[in-house]
Amino acid sequence: MQEAKITLDRDFVIGEIDPRLYGSFLEHLGRAIYTGIYEPDHPTADELGFRRDVLELVRELGVSIVRYPGGNFVSGYNWEDGVGPRSERPRRLDLSWRTVETNEVGLNEFAAWAKKAGAEVMMAVNLGTRGPDAARSLVEYCNHPGGSYWSDLRRAHGVTEPHRIKVWCLGNEMDGPWQIGHKTAEEYGRLACETAKVMRWVDPSIELGVCGSSGEGMPTFPSWEVTVLEHTYEHVDYLSLHTYFGNRDGDLANFLAQSVGMDRFIRTAIAACDYVQAKKRGKKRINLSFDEWNVWYHSNEADRKIEPWSIAPPLLEDIYNLVDALVVGCMLITLLKHADRIKIACLAQLVNVIAPIMTVKGGPAWRQTIFYPFLHASRYARGTALATLVRAPLYDTKQFEAVPLLEAVATVEEERGELVIFAVNRSQEEALALEVELRGMRAAYRPLEHLVLANDDPQAVNTAAEPYRVAPYLQEGAKLEDDRLKVILPRLSWNTIRLRKA
Ligand code: AHR
After folding, report:
1. Cβ 318 under 6 angstroms from ligand 1
2. Which superfamily does 2-9+386-501 belong to?
3. pTM for the whole structure
């Protein structure tokens, strides 16, 4: 068995973990909304038509904030289409996904759903086909109490209290040629600046995120960030980043190392934020909103066969295996390692569309493999993130050099009296014997439980017929010897090791 060591110290503080790190995303795309969260004919549907079985799983996952309504969809969306009497709402061609949008669900229904789910809404405005005027009207409709055209319209639609939506995205992936209304950094920077100003003039309490790059591989990264922030620094709070990973060539070792690239992407984006702050002699620090991240590749082929202009077709329905869950685990650890600068993150997406939760129309809902790392992090990675000093065997891949077999971070939560270590063993061959030196925390903590997600078959998946094939289990054997915790991490595993104050 190979060996790995972690040195932990209560003083190795990265930063406080913002609860919005456990956000997700629901777009009007495929079956995310229709037959995902909303299915009025479903046996579990509530009085508003929302599936109770799905709501329960979302609550179990502990999702804190949900980005809406897109994604690429938002860049062609007229938000007014989704409010007011349902019978008067238009059917529209959605050019981003080549489907028909019925507008049965719009922002008021979504806000009601989010409330039931216990999550905050993060609203995106259309900066593809629209601009400051539609955005300021939307803020007025959502957040102004009353006594003005748009706020009174909301009241006339039966929503007396304002939604008080705090976090807003200034468009979506505006650096991507696939985006409706794609722009250069200059064009977008100017538009985002003017839009931000009027949105804030309507409601000065809102927080704004400006589009950064859609991935580290974008040819305009990182000069895009610099140009856009030079235009918007004074008016925004967050730079938004997106990343998806896939294993298209079956190179598992390289796929498991992808979070190394995510880490580099984050560090460069932070450098761009700090460069603009310095250049502007600014006091404000721009933080990151990593508002789309996940594994996405299984469904690419199937999506090419979808009939255009269908209503809620099964698009982007990736079925995730164990290895995908480990990559998601590594991505979560990477986000936590930057808890000082990443204040919002959204697993993209939440239901059916590249999602931890799957549904069958008229049938059951179940947890995909990637549900579990997110669940464990949202439940136990609270309080303060602590850096880990890791010594582990290294390996090279075609993209990365010196990748450690062990990926890890720790968190400490004083109220619960818990110290938690999150670790992925990337080894395809063997278990890792892990020794954790609890420096400065000697005798303070005792092992409470060690949760493991692993499987003999790295390709194992959960399905409607077999929903619990890949599920976490408790592993015995974690022991404390003086100030050293000794624990075995099975090969290809996600581990949550909880210690409680003695
Ligand atoms: O999440 C799916 C899509 O991925 C989103 O619509 C878009 O923003 C990204 O390219």
Report:
1. no
2. Golgi alpha-mannosidase II (2.60.40.1180)
3. 0.98
